[in-house]
Design goal:
CATH class: Mainly Alpha
Helix content: over 70%
CATH architecture: Orthogonal Bundle
Largest sheet: 2 strands, antiparallel
Strand order of the largest sheet: 1-2
Number of domains: 1
Number of strands: 2
Distance between the termini: 37 Å
Shape: globular
Radius of gyration: 24 Å
Oligomer: single chain
Amino acid sequence: MDKTPNQKAWFLVLPVLILVAFSAVIPLMTVVNYSVQDTFGNNEFFWAGLEWFRELLEDDRMWDALGRQLMFSGIILAIEVPLGILVALNMPKKGVWVSICLVLMSLPLLIPWNVVGTIWQIFGRVDIGLLGHTLAALGIDYNYTQDPFAAWVTVIVMDVWHWTSLVALLAYAGLQSIPDAYYQAAKIDQASRWKVFRYIELPKMAGVLMIAVLLRFMDSFMIYTEPFVVTGGGPGSTTTFLSIDLVKMALGQFDLGPAAAFSLMYFLVILLISWVFYTVMVNLDKRGT
């Protein structure tokens, strides 16, 4: 006998849907509304259509910021993922040192982003900063406020210091999920350390590593607070990433229309990249099962 499905469970989800509507959908619709309009003040808006999107696509400044953003994210992934795996492989597997290492690795993740930027801003200063003063004493010309290369190195090292722990903790969780039988079989076969890593540890870490790559790419692609506090996007526009350029356009110049169109394009790029990562993760999971 067929029974009519009970749909009352949807009422449990209704508060979440309402919260999402107010916190995400409605602000998004407001941004969409601004992106197709222009204003001269006094809360008077005029229809602009796709003019702002067309101007942004023809603006070299946005493409330069996008190039800097992609290069920064690529460098970050190339450093933090192998470094996080290396740290995870050398972390203790048993004993009291496991808890100590986990706590120490988690400490950088607990520091707020603006505090991280302030720490490295002071740390890198030539007059009072330990890093800047030490490099100056060694005869190394280091000034992140005037030298573009020094600014990039400072921002990259700061991000590596802040977020490598996340990759290491995720990789460590993947290593801990490997049964001891795999290592015992490898020991019987006299497999080398590289082969154990290549054929046992790396495949078992593939899932968590994809999550780590996704999280780090998304966060590095949206980075704002740390480089803004340290360099302000300078010197010049050397470290002006997409987020900094967007904030300058929206708050500094108060160009609501172009800023809204910029944020929508920014959102679509992030959404596309997330979809690509999700597709890859699903395919890897299917291949693993």
